Every structure is written in C-alpha cells, then in structure tokens.
Amino acid sequence: MSEPTHDVVIIGGGHNGLVAAAYLAQAGRSVLVLEREPQVGGAAISADAFPGTGARLSRYSYLVSLLPTRIIDELGLDIELARRRYSSYTPGRSTDGLLVDHGDADATLASFARLGAAADCEAWTAFYDDTARLARAVFPTVCEPLLTRSEARRLVGDDALWRSLIEQPLGEAITARFDNDLVRGVVATDGLIGTFTSLTDPSLDANRCFLYHVIGNGTGDWDVPIGGMGAVTGALERAARGAGARLDVGADVESLTPAGVVTYRQHGRLQTVTGGVVLANVAPWVLRELLAAGGASAVSSPAQPKPEGAQVKVNLLLTRLPRLRDSRVSPEAAFGGTFHINESYEQLQAAFEQALAGEIPAVLPCEIYCHSLTDPSILSPELAAAGAHTLTVFALHTPNRALTEANNASMRAELQAAVLRSLNSVLAEPIVGLFMTDADGHPCIETKTTLDLEHALNLPGGNIFHGPLSWPFLEDDEPRSTPAERWGVATEHPRILICGAGARRGGGVSGLGGHNAAMAVLEGP
Questions:
Q1: Is residue 73 located within the same domain as residue 101?
Q2: What integer pLDDT is reported at residue 301 of this predicted model?
C-alpha cells in the first residue's frame, strides 16, 4: 500500500470539496484539493458572462436554500443571504396571474380569487404548513448520521403526511388537495426542477426532488446570496485556505486507485499523490471512470446508467424589466420571486410527454429569477442606476437524450428560441427588444444545454444533482456499520468516499456532501 503524501486528497474544488477541506484542515489534517478549472467553485461561481457590461452573474447555480446555518457558523463563513418578499408569480391563460406575496396575505388571497381559486388559497396555506412541519423534523438530521426510514417516519410523527409526500406519487397529493390547474402546477414544479419525470411516476423521483426543495433550513425558503454565488465560494475558499488546506487549480485528475493513488495533469506534467483517504467531489459516474482508468472495479455494482439532466439554462441582461400582460401586477413584484411560465399542471404533463417522445415541448415550461432586484451589487453602479436587470431562466423537460456532439449547437439555438417564445407568451412586449449588448456588440443572452454543462462542469448528462436524488434516510435493511455508511458517503473502496452532490443527501448548493464526508473521516476508519 502506498504511503500517503496527504491525510486527505479531495478530487474537485466545487463548494462541497471546499466545505470538506475546511472542516478537515481545521481538525489538523493535511488536505490537498485538486481542481481541473483555473478557479475553485464548480457550479457555484460568478462570472462576467457579458464582457464590458458591468454585470457579474451567478452563471450556473443561482439560489441557496439547503446550505445549513450550522455549516456557515462552524466554518465562520462571511455569507449574506437575502430573503425574497415574493414567493412566486404565475401568469394565467387570461390576463390575470397568481401572485404569492409573503408580505401581504390579503393580496395573495385576492390573487387566488381572481383566478377563481379562492378555496385553493386556504389549501395552499395548509399544504405548506404541512411541508414546514416536515422540514422542521427532517432538516436538522441532514448534518447527522443517517436515520433509518422507520426512525425518520417516527420523527415526522404524522403517518398521513408521511404517506402523501414520501410513499405515494407527488401528483396524488397535489391533485387531492388543490382544484385549480394553475395552482397545482406551481406546487408541482418543485418536484421537477432538474428531474425528468412524471408527477405520477411510481419511482417517486418527483417526491425526492420536492422534498429537498421544501426542507431547506427548516423553512424551504430559497435565498439570494449577496454578491452572487461567487461570494459563497469565495467565503469557503478563504475558510479552507485559512485552515491550512492546499488548493491546486488547473489539476486535471486522470485516474484513481482503491489504494488512494491519484494521478493528475497540471501545467503539462503528469503527477501522482496518495491520500490516506480520497474524497471524490465528482459525480459517481465520473468516479467510476477514474477508478476504471486506475484499473479498479466500478464504484457501485451493478453499474447504474449514465445520469441524465433535463434542463436548459439561459442568462440574460436587459435594459429594464419587461412589461406584463397582467396590468394588476408590477414587473418588480412579478420578477421579485420565482416567475413561473407555462407551468400549469396540464402543461407540465404535456411537456413531459412530448419530451419523452423526443420532441422539444411545443410550450416550454420555464422559471425566471431576477437576482438584481434583490441584490443590485451584482451590477455596476452605472448599470443599476440605468434600470438594467439580470434574468436567469431555467427551462424544464429538455432531456439530454436529444443532444449529441454533432447537434449541440443547433439544439442550443432551437432551445433558446423555445425559451424566448415561452417568455414572450406572457409578456406585453417581445423580450428581444430589451437585450443589452456587450462590448463586442453581441446581444446579452447566454444559453447552456445539458451537454454544455457536461463539458463545463463535468456533470454527466448535464445532471445538476450528479445523479438520481436519494432519500435523506437509509432503508431499514441498509448497512450502516461504518462511518462512511452512516454518513451516506461510502463507496466499495474504504479509502474512497463520495463528498459531492452524489452523496446521500446531496444535490443543490448545500455543502452537505462535503460536511458529511468530513465527519465520516473524522469519526474514524
């Protein structure tokens, strides 16, 4: 067995790798992080996507919910998260839309009533009271060793709630509790973000996605990081370096052995290091490939299919916010939360069926986020004073199976056009007329397909969760005899642990994969 050169080698300098590095270095371990890109941060970065404009966008990941306050406090992170007043706005098929305003319950009720859905307002409150109870029970466990299913069910303490959200397809709970198709769709979207599935699928993939969207920090709120996602990464990088971790960028890992030998290429030179423990802050699929390159068996048996993402991401910089068809709602309110477009329950199901058949949905479901309304600091003072705004669009049901290396450019153009058509269908003016231009005279629009995400971030199939989401608990008969098993970070090889989004309780900008891998290392062999 090779003599370790470091106590811990971490493959991948995304936010989870930085969390693990900071915890382990603070505990006195020698830590080396190897990141293939010129900077750390992975998907949680800010970028000058439009040169010369003075806008710095959260290019990939864009909101924070699952990052526990506990991790922020324990690592001493200087991070400010801003709560959005508005939950969401969803245009209806007429000129009226649904505005959910955290700051004005009467206005929210009136908005439901204008849709003819006044009864659903009461149902909405009761439903999210239930998810809040679920969140208060489950979220405090995510930084602890995994509970079993039976233990988690007892902790929730409500068998009816457990059955409806954990054991039965999500669509059953939604259609049983809400009558209005638009309201049903707004609730349903949290089960579909980044997950290509039907709301009635017995796999319960939508339920797992929904659960992680509603439990964050015990409230389910999705907050805007002041300064952009790069501010989160910057705080984590300072914590890791300050504790003594070594962060090497431009270090592209080529292979890994079960004995912890890591081979990587940096500055044109092939180098080798050995970790007493190796933490893989890459997708399990990528880890499997690295192990195969090192002559090892697969990380899991039998091998799972390659993950698949199902979204397109579009970043925009506009001269101002667009006008709405719904004159009752100001653009500042509509774009102040999550702006749902063509996401009624029926539209979501129709889009899924079309995508399943290999087509781009005729009416593409999309969600918009305007970070500059909550955080003007991502714009230069001149840009903010001129009324400019960023928009991030996340479109659903655009599965990676439709893309190839040969057609990626043409599909990117088609998907971008589909996104713009979807936006224009709810606006009072064409959005293209509001595009700013960059220093080179190009319109400020940037579109990323699943294949683009695979190329840029090493996300297999463009899957933003690194693979299928798991429940935040073990099945009653699953092994938990080792620290790695108890913390949900085990692989077939004792010296190699998963520390990224592909860990149990992974996904999103949470730091949980990194925290839990670090805790498993500190607990012992």
A1: no
A2: 46
DSSP letter for each residue of 405-436: TTTHHHHHHHHHHHHHHHHHTTBSS-GGGGB-
| Tokens standing for residue 466 | 């690194």
Look at the chain and report how many structural domains it folds into: 3
User: What are the pLDDT digits (tens) for 69-81?
Assistant: 999 999 999 999 9
CATH code for position 291 = 3.50.50.60
Q: Which residues contact 460 (CB under 8 A, 6 or more apart)?
A: 283, 285, 286, 306, 307, 454, 466, 467
Backbone angles phi, psi at 33, to 5 degrees: -105, 130
Cis peptide before 302 (omega within 30 of 0): yes
How many other β-carbons are positioned within 10 Å of the β-carbon of residue 288?
Answer: 22
Query: Among 173, 174, 183, which Cα is nearest to 116's?
Result: 183
Structural domain range at position 354: 85-117+308-460
Q: Which residue has the tokens 């599965």?
A: 399
Task: Give which of 372, 367, 364, 366 is closest to 321, Cα–Cα.
Answer: 372
Q: What is the pLDDT of residues 418-444, one digit of tens each?
A: 999 999 999 999 999 999 999 999 999
317 near 390, Cβ under 8 Å? yes
What is the bridge-based pairing of β-strands 251-256 and 246-249? Answer: unpaired
If asked whether residues 291 and 381 sit together in one domain, one would say no
The tokens describing 250, both together, are: 């431009």
Query: pTM of the full predicted structure?
Result: 0.96
Boundary (domain end) residue, out of 218, 239, 257: 218
Residue 95's pLDDT band, with cuts at 50, 70 and 90, is: confident
Opening angle at CA 156, ends 150 and 159, nearest 5: 75
